[in-house]
């Protein structure tokens, strides 16, 4: 049970339910191959059946952590932070992004877009899910659209989502990891026929790094 004082700090974004934080190589999307400090925040109700971090879903399992401490830890390692989840926009991210940027750290987020956008971002990766669609306002803000492909119908969903983002948004199709042997060939063919798209692979898993 969280007491009122802690809850007030959470509401202001001065504490966050931290699941894990680690320094690694960005494995997906436009910034693949770059060093970054990952901050994974607990809590998600989007419910992707293929999610590989289902342990992040229940925020109550992840203790509220002082945001200043998270920022301090990040500053020891990297000039880029990726905030992910879970669904990080379930929480107010204005405080943490302001603190990070004041420390000259670039702020990236990966989100389903299902909750209102908070925080100030250098890069927004929007990864929509059919189970809980993005809110309208985030489409125009996204720098990158990443669609996970686990079956042929996902290509239709990808085009529907691509029609809503800006002309400058980078478009990526990424095979769902457990279906990669089956879907990668279809993605290659699709991208060759539709070159506005690029392929994203979970290279960190091929490299066996976090």
UniProtKB/TrEMBL annotation:
Signal peptide (from-to): none
Any matching Pfam family: Radical_SAM
EC number(s) on file: 4.3.99.3
Ranges for domain Radical SAM core: 31-210
Residues that hold substrate according to the record: 25-27, 40, 84, 210
Cofactor(s) needed by this chain: Mg(2+); S-adenosyl-L-methionine; [4Fe-4S] cluster
Positions annotated to bind S-adenosyl-L-methionine: 50-52, 86, 127-129
Stored InterPro entries: 7-CO-7-deazaguanine_synth-like, Aldolase_TIM, rSAM, rSAM_sf
Record's keyword terms, sorted: 4Fe-4S, Iron, Iron-sulfur, Lyase, Magnesium, Metal-binding, Queuosine biosynthesis, S-adenosyl-L-methionine
One GO term (biological process): tRNA queuosine(34) biosynthetic process
Binding site for [4Fe-4S] cluster: 44, 48, 51
Reaction(s) catalysed (UniProt annotation): 6-carboxy-5,6,7,8-tetrahydropterin + H(+) = 7-carboxy-7-carbaguanine + NH4(+)
Organism domain of life: Bacteria
GO molecular function: 4 iron, 4 sulfur cluster binding; carbon-nitrogen lyase activity; magnesium ion binding; S-adenosyl-L-methionine binding
Pathway: Purine metabolism; 7-cyano-7-deazaguanine biosynthesis
Cofactor note: Binds 1 S-adenosyl-L-methionine per subunit. Binds 1 [4Fe-4S] cluster. The cluster is coordinated with 3 cysteines and an exchangeable S-adenosyl-L-methionine.
Protein family membership: Belongs to the radical SAM superfamily. 7-carboxy-7-deazaguanine synthase family.
Subunit structure: Homodimer.
Function: Catalyzes the complex heterocyclic radical-mediated conversion of 6-carboxy-5,6,7,8-tetrahydropterin (CPH4) to 7-carboxy-7-deazaguanine (CDG), a step common to the biosynthetic pathways of all 7-deazapurine-containing compounds.
Protein known as: 7-carboxy-7-deazaguanine synthase
Species for this entry: Lutibacter oricola
Source species taxonomy: Bacteria, Pseudomonadati, Bacteroidota, Flavobacteriia, Flavobacteriales
Gene: queE
């Amino acid at each position: 049970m969280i007491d009122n004082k802690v809850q007030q700090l959470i509401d202001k974004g001065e504490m966050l339910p931290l699941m894990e934080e680690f320094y690694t190589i960005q494995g997906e999307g436009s910034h693949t191959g770059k060093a970054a400090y990952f901050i994974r925040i607990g809590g998600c109700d989007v419910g992707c059946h293929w999610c590989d971090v289902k342990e992040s879903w229940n925020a109550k399992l992840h203790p509220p952590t002082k945001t200043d401490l998270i920022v301090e830890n990040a500053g020891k390692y990297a000039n880029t932070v990726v905030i992910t989840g879970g669904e990080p926009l379930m929480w107010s991210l204005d405080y943490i992004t302001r603190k990070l940027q004041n420390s000259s750290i670039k702020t990236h987020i990966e989100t389903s877009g299902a909750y209102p956008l908070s925080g100030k971002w250098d890069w927004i990766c929007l990864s929509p899910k059919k189970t809980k669609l993005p809110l309208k306002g985030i489409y125009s803000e996204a720098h990158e659209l990443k669609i996970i492909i686990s079956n042929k119908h996902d290509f239709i969903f990808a085009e529907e989502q691509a029609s809503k983002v800006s002309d400058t948004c980078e478009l990526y199709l990424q095979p769902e990891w457990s279906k990669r042997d089956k879907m990668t060939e279809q993605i290659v063919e699709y991208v060759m026929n539709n070159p506005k798209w690029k392929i994203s692979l979970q290279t960190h898993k091929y490299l066996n790094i976090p």
